[in-house]
Each structure stands twice: as structure tokens, then as C-alpha cells.
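Request: Not sure, any thoughts?
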Amino acid sequence: MSEIKLEEPRSESIDDKNTEEIIKNNKEKSGEDLYGYLKRDNFTTEKYKIEVRGLPKYYGIGEFRRYLNEKLQLDANKIKPPKRGSGWAYICFRSEEGREKAITALDGTEWKKSKLSARIANPAPDPYMKRKLERRTETNNKISKIDEIESLSSEERIKLSTIPLCDMPYAEQLQVKQKDMRQVILNLGQEISKVNKDLCEWFNKERSKHNELPFELGEIKHANVTEGYRNKCEFTVGMDVQNEKKMIGFRLSSYAAGSTAVGPIDHLCHIPQRMKTAIKILEKFVRNSELDVFDPVTHKGYWRQVMARTTRLDHLMLIIGIHPQDMKDEYKKKLQNDLKEFFEQDCNAEARVTSLYFQTIEKKGAGGTGGGTVEHISGATHIEENLLDMTFRISPEAFFQINTLGAEVLYNTAIELAEPSKDTTLLDVCCGTGTIGLTFAKSCDQVLGIEMISNAINDAKVNAEINNITNTDFFVGKAEDILVPVINRTTKSNITAIVDPPRAGLHQKALVALRKAKKLNKLIYISCDPKAAVRNLVDLARPNSKQYFGEPLVPIKAVPVDMFPHTKHCELVLYLKRFSLLKKTTNEK
């Protein structure tokens, strides 16, 4: 499970006259404080924010971050440009000392032939409070898009935010996603062509073979089951839209849209009934509890979230998260015991919870500390899943694909593209619980997995033992930090890497390490957000340079896999190969 972060107001321009006018006209009347969040104990980078102006017309956020943190040693926490190409940006720090150091270092300095200025920036108003005040200024006949959405029932609003395509025939959903992936490939080819002229010529030749695409795009693949497929959901505990009763479900809209209400999940077709039943039973406990739900506006209250995980082996894990506030250890232990006894009662046996955990979600500190402490309450410490005739152990915080049947299609697609052999070492980057590497293991000589979450690596090692797989090794650490030493452990001259990174993609250092690995000839890139992956793929395909040393890795085929029916999301599996090998193959033909 990823670290839980308290919601923070989004950065806004200090030149926003409309916001200033709203504050001026409404703050005294309403008695609501747009900046009340700054008085709370929890940390927010809005307290230590600077505004930097005079930035060059063309620069990259990653490039700017490296300048700040590596060259100037400023330890910037966030960089927030108002829009692409703007000449100024906000930079957030973790302390007043860090902010003052940054102003001293940046004000009057020159970067990329541009003179910078820096000063303290005003904090952004709380977006929830701001939206409430904005509504008071709207006339009766001015109905915004948000207001139109709010006129819908809670059920319709939840469907719109979670499964917006559910009323579309599935065959049409696939057509929409295939078209979207085609556009991604077209854009990717254009972006790569801008930075590598050799590949521009290569892609131009390939377009005649692939219906004007720079490389081949296969037909979208999917599992046969398209309903009840989610094996993991994170639910919010809050109040219903009438603010009358506690509810476990999904938020009706974002905090910035001015709503903290929670809506039901019973009507959602992508959530399995087993999970819905368990959540409804837990909801009874929460409603009968003397503890209030957590309020995102005031940060008071306790019940906050629930993670549910199910498997095809009929296992179900619940991780119940609270914000402990000033709760004493004795009361926390009593609450944990009450939850344990609740699910052991015969009247609640229908929940069939096989693994129960309790999570305390602490306040975030100035050092970025905080997050959740997970404690086992009852049942098994892990759940198990069956995938491609193998058994996988899953711990509470480990990553596992949310659609098991879809994952089987995804991994088979990766194997078909990679064509591993007994002369191949597979480098599994961001390996999670080892599922991808272990599915490859019987087709290659050696599997080396890398993952930053230690519990996931423990699971990967156990999963190898459970499935009697002996040609694997798994290593804990960030890919950008340990890729090189792990690559040096390879026993074969031919490396195929497979990466399944988080939505933000791979760190630049990891990309550089992959490019430098001379033995690496093939790379399979699995992207859950293909549009966001373009930057990584462009960097892999750049010409050889001091910054990007090594021969380019060029995409030659992509296959979409629909892991998320009824949503707009789609995975894309891309097969990349060293450019010299492509030219060699073409010349031989």
C-alpha cells in the first residue's frame, strides 16, 4: 500500500484577482477561514513556499529539479508551475530554514541564460473552502459543470467517476481504447522523431508497413470476465451526501470540487460481491461506533479508509485505517479486539474475512514522515492468489495487479513479445511480489528482480519457494540505486529487461542504467498510463550522448491490454530493441 498523504490545497497564482475578491467579499460574512489548514499540526508544504520568476522559455521540470537539489543542494520538495511554458513556478520546502536558503541561492542567480528572482509566496487557499465561497457568488442561472454533476444521484455520480463506460457495450469500449492507443503511438513516434533524426528516418520507412504508424500496434487483448474483476479496492470512510450517516464507499467528487461526501458501492459492476458484502458488514460496526469519521476539512475524527483485497482462492483481506488523533494505546488495543470479535460473530460470518489488519494513519511531519503503521489483528498474515497455474503470496502493502485474469493476459502478452530463451537473463524492474519474473522463469535461464518495498521482496522469495522455482534472485532498493550492481550479477550475455513502473514512470537514473547495460538487447515496458510513459520512452530512444550514454532502445511493437473494463484506462505493453539490431535485421533481409 502506498503511503497515505493528507490532502493539501493545490497551488494557485497569487495574481488570481477573482480569488482575492472572493476572500474579501465573503470571508467576514461566512466566518470560514480559507487558510485554517495552516493552523493545524500536520505538515503542509504551503507553509514554506517560494515563487521563482524569470525561468527560461524551454526547460524540463526534471532538469530544474536536478539544478535545485543536486547543484544548489536545496532539497526542494515540490515544483509547481502554473502551466507548461510559464516563466515562473512555485517551489515548496519542508522548513522555514530550507525556504530562506533557497531564496538566498536563487534570487539574482542565472540559469540557462535567464536571470531568476525569488521571494516568499502566499499559501494557496483551501480549495474546499474556496469552492464553497465561489458558489455564493454564482447567480441562479449560472450552473457550472460541477453543479450539473451534483444534480445527479449519488449512485450515478459514483458510476461517472469510477466506471464511466459501463453503459457502453464492451465491444465498443475496446474500439475506443484501441483508437486511443493508436493516437498514443502516433504521438510517441512524433516525440521520438524530434530528438533522434536517425529514428525519424526509420519510422518514416516503417509507416508504410503499419498503416501510418511508426511501429506495429497489435489488436487489444482482454480477459473473458469483465465484471467483478477488481481484487483490490481502497474505500473512504465518511458521511453520506445528506451528512446524516456514516458510510464506506467512494468520494462523490474531489476535495477541490467542494465535496467530502461518500457514496455507495452496491451498484458498481467492477467490484466483486464478496468484497461488497464484507464492506457492508464492516459499515455496521463503524455506524455503531462512538468514534466519528475523519473530516478532511478539519482533520478531526477517526475512521478514515478501508482497503479490501480478494483472490480467486476465496481469500479476503481487510485493512482498516483510522486517524488516531490523541487515542491512547489501551483504547486502540480495545478497538482492535472489538473488530476481531465482531468478525468472529456468527451473524457476521458472511463477510468471511480471512486476514484482518488495523492501520493507524499518522499526521505528516515536516520531514515527510507519517503514513500508516499496519498491525495484524486476526486470521492469516497473508492471502494467496492463483495466476498462470502458480500460487502467489500477497502481503498487505505489496503490489499485485488488480485484475487477476487480466494479469494472465498481460503477462502472456509480455512473454510472447520478449520470446525468452535459455540463454536469457530476465531483469524484472519494479517486480512487486515477483509475479512477472516468476511467470518468465521457466522460459529463461535466470531472473533478477528489483523492488523498493521490502515486504514485497519477501513475498517474491517465498513465491519462488512455493512454486519450486530456483533460478531467481530478488533485491530490495530503488531501481535507480541498485540497477547497475544487479546487472553486473548476470551470468548470460543476453539480457531482456521488463519494467512495470508506477504511474509516474521510471526515474531518469534507472533509464540511464538500462541504456548503459551493453548486454541488454530487449526491453518490455508495461505502462498503466501510456500517455505518462511517453517521456520515459523518448529518453530511452534518444541518441547516444553524455547524459544518455548507450545505444537507443527503440519501440517496434505495442499491444494494448484492457485490464480495467468499463473505465477509460488501458495498459500498453511495448517491445523495445537496440537500434543496431534493428538495422542489422533489415540489412540481412
Q: What stands out?
A: The radius of gyration is 26 Å. The chain has 17 helices and 24 strands. The longest strand covers residues 553-562.
